[in-house]
Each structure stands twice: as C-alpha cells, then as structure tokens.
Amino acid sequence: MLGGDFNDTRYSWERSSSCEEVNRRAKKFDDWIDSTNLLEVEFSGSPHTWARGLTDETRKSARLDRTLYNNEWAMPWLTYEKLQEFMVDNWSNEAPLVPFLKSFSQKLQSWNQTVFHNIFKKKRELLARIGGVRSKLAQSRSSNLIKLESKMRKELDEVLYQEELLWYQKPRVDWLRDGDRNTSFFHLSTIKRRWRNHIVAIKDENNQWLENPVEFKKCIIDFF
Questions:
Q1: 145/151 Cα distance (integer angstroms)
Q2: 100, 107, 81, 94: CA torsion to nearest 10
Q3: Is the four-CA dihedral 115, 118, 120, 124 of positive or negative sign?
Q4: Which H or E element spans position 131?
Q5: Rounded distance, CA 123 to CA 100, Å?
Q6: What residue ranges in 83-224 does DSSP mark as E strands?
Q7: CA 111 – CA 100 distance, rounded (Å)
Q8: Which of 14, 95, 164, 192 could bond to 9 as cystine, CB 3.0-4.6 Å?
Q9: Cα separation of 87 and 108, whole Å?
Q10: Distance of alpha carbon 47 from alpha carbon 49, whole angstroms
C-alpha cells in the first residue's frame, strides 16, 4: 500500500487549473497507476487536499494526496483460506483432547509440507530459477522467458510476504509457548530498551558533541 503526497493528479477535476504540461504529467501518472495494477482507496472530504494563494488570481488547489494498493498482495491470504478449510475438515470437539491434538498436529505438519511448503526452500528455488532465466535473457530475448520471469517474480513476492509474516509472528509464538520462562526473550527486550534509551552523546551550546559523562553533567547544569 502506498499513501501520501504524490505531487501529481490523475484527472482534470482534481485541480483548479491546468495546462498542457500538467495534462501530460497527469496522463503519465495515471498510466503508471494502471500499469502497476494499483487500485485507489475511496476517500471522503474535500476533493482537493492542497491549496495556496490568498486572492482569486493566485488561488490554486489540487488533490495531491491519495492511497493506492496492489490487489496482488491479497494472494498470500489464499493460503489462510486453505488453512481455514483444513481446520473445518479436521477439527473435532467430540474427541478426547490430548490424543486428538497429537493426531491433529501430525495432520497439520503434513498439510504444511504439501500445501504451505517450506518458505525458505521455496525462496531459494525461485531465486535460483529467476537467476537462470535472467542469464538466458541476457544472451537472447524470448517472450516465453519474459512471461516466465514475470510469473516467478509474482510467486517470489508472495513467498517474501509470507516470510515477513513468519518472522513477525515467531517471537509472539515463542512467548505464548514459553511465557515467563523464556528469559532470553525478556533479556533481549530489556537490552533493546536500554540501547534505545541510552544517551551516548549530546551537543552543547557551541554545537559541539560531548561524550564524557562529566561534560554531560556540566552542560545540563549550565543549561538549567
């Protein structure tokens, strides 16, 4: 998702005035949005998000802020839907919990290998295949190879997104599993906070960096 001030408009109604150059830029911007398969998030409020000028002659306004998203990033959630289907098909509220969880975990591992696959292995394979295709394209062009590279790059985007989610969820899974026993987790969290809160240098009134604690103290006392 992309959001913010793009410093350009797409349509004539998005600006109070225009010229040939502005129209050319608007078309180029609109073509770029279409070529990258971006969709626009609907918004409410004033149609123009930027304005300047205090008189009728100098007043200009336009819609420069917008939010765009790529619908192809919804692809990883297909795996989530498959997981939901697996849960519905294999979960049982009637079976004894402990033996059921043992058999269920085995089924889940098998599902993970056949449906979700190993993210890191798949990532290595895709990178290797893309590298091979690019090597061949460097020697001679082929429409089939170009389409194949584009297809594999989309697959790689999905795998990279899944990898990002995995690393994001892993520390939370560790905490749920180990709780307060996971002392290394809390130790690293504390160290991280200390690193973030530790002051290693400050600037004095002469814009000079001070690194000595004694100089820190004197500078702060003098300031107040």
A1: 10
A2: -20
A3: negative
A4: helix 119-139
A5: 33
A6: 202-203, 209-210
A7: 16
A8: 14
A9: 9
A10: 7
135 backbone φψ class: left, alpha, beta (φ>0; ψ -120 to 50): alpha
Q: What is the DSSP string of 198-222?
A: ----EE-TTS-EE--HHHHHHHHHH
The set of long-range contacts for 140-146, using a CB threshold of 8 Å and a minimum separation of 24, is: none
Query: 192: helix, coil or strand?
Result: helix
- Say if CB 24 and CB 54 are below 8 A apart: no
Rounded to whole angstroms, the Cα distance separating 8 from 28 reads 10
Query: Helix crossing, 77-90 with 97-111: angle to 10°?
Result: 140
In angstroms, the CA 218 to CA 212 distance is 10
* Highest mean pLDDT: which range of 42-46, 92-96, 119-123: 92-96
Tokens of 18: 């225009």
What three-state secondary structure class fits 141? coil
- The per-residue pLDDT for range 33-55, each reduced to its tens digit, is 877 777 887 777 778 888 888 88
What is the number of residues in the chain? Answer: 224
Q: Which amino acid is at 35?
A: S
Predicted TM-score (pTM) of the model is 0.35
Which pLDDT tens digit goes with each residue over 97-119? 888 888 888 888 887 777 666 77
Domain spans in the chain, listed from the N-terminal domain onward: 2-71, 77-182, 183-224
